[in-house]
Design brief:
globular, binds alpha-D-glucopyranose, six-stranded antiparallel sheet, alpha/beta, eight-stranded parallel barrel, 41% helix, 640 residues
């Protein structure tokens, strides 16, 4: 091993020696295992090491032990590559733009709520395939504190699973099976924090200085250097971002719940330890890791400690690690922050995939206001991303809806952003007169008045209310809204992500309020169980669930016949009618023009360029002159 990293950077020849020395240092059994994987590994090391080194130096270059930690990291990479299963190594060699395919369709579920356990999930593979799903996010399934673990987002051990779901070996087996069935498994990489029951946290509590440094243990004065500029994420649960640790009498950094301890990435031991956990998960079969709460991973006094430049460096360094040791692995960014910050995580060298929280929030906004200006203006600025990357477009997920649009864009079109957020919260919690929605408020901040909304798709879109009122016209409108939302995530460009249960129109589950471990977190209202009986309704067109499911299936089918809806470029178009949303997809001269009426009134759309169009959804010929859209109508127009 060379003594200085700079030397390596200066002379690429040394990289060769680096790889050779590394190989010599492996234990005999690993050497045998590594034999096959080694040539590929060495090539990739050669290619990516300069980049990894530069990033590592940026993070840790000033530390005396930097080269020691780097050597440790490289050994870990060699070991991980050596034990990578053959079927994953075969995937490593394939192109990785599968997420841009017109067939690509994702879903997210809690294993226990959707299928009981890992075995149960296997029996649901036919249903997933029938629905067209080929990307499946299995929500946290790791060992976690009981009974409250923030829905599993407080991990006590990244290498063990919750006993009720089955063992890690069963999970690996399930993921292998999913791969064989053409479904890419997605796991969470909850890397901003561990639970306070993780063995590192336990050691820190016991006073071990090595592990104290894995976290932030602050005196009151140290805490107060950071505290004033931080945003409160869960203000209903606990004010501030710190928790007093009883034994030490020190303050531990806890951005989320008190039992979720933020990791200290300024410590290279933390980076290395988490890189090891990450590669372990990759080798169990994960195709994608969802980088949970990634905006928070770097801290600097005097800032809000979100989206800091070094947070990007950490993620890019992890990305370089995967390109060396597990290249088929991709990252999905979970940055539910300002739109300008969301896009900064998206790059082939950072996160190839990203949730699209702007689209999500503004679709709901347009349904409430029946207007599309904010949606159009915002997306015109913030939809274009690197052509090798993809948005993950979703309508609902297991979390709340935060109204993360850009205040400046709102002001420009005459909307007061704060008042508007208040309106949206009122509207979606059903308190605004005439609202169709049945949602629940989440984390009302008593000081700022800030609040978010929780609820299942069908409840928020109006099905729940219409059924309670027994109003069939309202019910039709609610179904049309669901269809409209699905049509957009399936056609606007990116990987559409369904939230299991929504495809069947399952409504809010209010029983969480009876459960002491859940009652303080209203997101449980949209974490519903899906039974065999529920799934059986998919085929029943007389049942509401069947209607919702079959409408979705129709959209999926039509999309899969139009390659332009996969890889095509997206242009968000301005339209004179402010109730109509228009965008165009284009691929090598093939075009699809999508028009969506966000109101329950007929809307005039003027004349379209050219008049010979066919609506791919209905198969009908459409005359482009004096086009009108019926209430909530969606058109996918293809030139004849
Ligand atoms: C992410 C998860 C959310 C969790 C938080 C803290 O935002 O989606 O459920 O509460 O991270 O881990
Ligand atoms: C996320 C977001 C926050 C969200 C929370 C949990 O990481 O940044 O706005 O509400 O975690 O849902």
């Amino acid at each position: 091993m060379p003594n200085t990293i700079q030397a390596l950077l200066a002379d690429p020849q040394l990289l060769r020696i680096e790889a050779d020395t590394l190989q010599k240092r492996l234990t005999p059994s690993l050497k045998t295992a590594a034999k096959q994987a080694w040539p590929e590994f060495q090539t990739r090391l050669q290619q990516v090491l300069p980049e990894l080194l530069a990033l590592y130096l940026e993070l840790y270059g000033e530390l005396f032990e930097c080269s020691y930690y780097l050597e440790q990291l490289l050994k870990q990479l060699a070991k991980s590559a050596a034990v990578r299963p053959d079927y994953l190594r075969a995937e490593d060699a394939q192109p990785q733009q599968w997420h841009q395919d017109e067939h690509a369709l994702g879903a997210a579920c809690y294993v226990d709520l959707f299928a009981g356990n890992f075995q149960g999930l296997k029996t649901r593979i036919p249903y997933l395939k029938q629905t067209g799903i080929n990307y499946l996010h299995l929500m946290p399934l790791f060992k976690a504190p009981e009974p409250n673990s923030d829905g599993g987002y407080a991990v006590s051990d990244y290498r063990s699973t919750m006993p009720k779901l089955g063992s890690m070996a069963e999970l690996a087996d399930l993921m292998h099976e999913l791969h064989q069935q053409g479904i890419r498994p997605v796991l969470d990489f909850v890397f901003n924090h561990t639970s306070d029951e993780h063995r590192w946290a336990e050691k820190a509590k016991a006073g071990d200085p090595l592990y104290r440094d894995f976290y932030f243990f602050f005196t009151e004065a140290e805490r107060d250097r950071y505290a004033p500029t931080l945003r409160e994420i869960f203000p209903e649960i606990r004010r501030g971002s710190f928790t007093l640790e009883a034994k030490s009498g020190l303050w531990v950094w806890t951005t989320f719940n008190s039992f979720q301890w933020d990791l200290n990435y300024a410590n290279p031991a933390v980076f290395n330890a988490m890189a090891d956990e990450m590669l372990f998960l990759a080798n169990q079969g994960a195709s994608v890791l969802r980088l949970d709460a990634l905006a928070f991973v770097w801290k600097q006094a005097g800032t809000n400690c979100e989206n800091l430049p070094k947070a990007h460096t950490v993620i890019r360094a992890f990305n370089a690690v995967t390109r060396i040791a597990a290249p088929a692995l991709q990252f999905k960014s979970e940055a539910i922050v300002h739109p300008d910050d969301v896009v900064k995580y998206i790059a082939p060298q950072e996160c190839q995939l990203s949730y699209n929280p702007l689209l999500m929030a503004l679709l709901w906004n347009s349904l409430a206001t029946r207007k599309t200006r904010l949606l159009t203006e915002s997306l015109q600025r913030r939809f274009a991303i690197d052509p090798q990357c993809s948005w993950v477009n979703y309508i609902r997920c297991h979390d709340d809806i935060g109204w993360t649009f850009d205040d400046q864009v709102a002001w420009q079109i005459g909307i007061n952003p704060d008042h508007h957020r208040q309106f949206l919260n009122q509207f979606y919690t059903g308190r605004f007169p005439g609202s169709f929605a049945s949602g629940v408020p989440f984390q009302l901040n008593p000081v700022t008045g800030d609040c978010r909304v929780a609820g299942m798709l069908s409840s928020l879109a109006g099905v729940e209310k219409a059924q309670a009122e027994q109003n069939s016209q309202h019910l039709d409108h609610a179904l049309a809204r669901i269809y409209l939302l699905n049509s957009i995530i399936l056609s606007i460009g990116g990987l559409p992500l369904l939230y299991m249960g929504d495809e069947l129109g399952i409504q809010n589950d209010y029983s969480f309020s009876q459960d002491p471990a859940k009652k303080d977190d209203s997101r449980w209202v949209n974490r519903v169980a899906v039974s065999d009986q529920d799934l059986a309704k998919a085929a029943d067109s007389n049942h509401l669930s069947g209607r919702i499911y079959q409408q979705l299936q129709h959209l999926v089918k039509v999309r899969s016949q139009l390659p332009v809806l996969g890889r095509g470029r997206t242009d968000i178009l301005w339209h004179a009618n402010q109730h109509v949303f228009v965008y165009q997809r284009e691929l090598r001269g093939q075009k699809v023009l999508c028009l969506v009426n966000f109101s329950e009134q007929v809307q005039a759309c003027g004349d379209l360029p050219g008049n010979a169009w066919t609506d791919a959804l209905s198969g009908l010929r459409i005359d482009g002159n004096h086009l009108t859209l019926t209430p909530y109508q969606v058109l996918w127009l293809v030139a004849r």
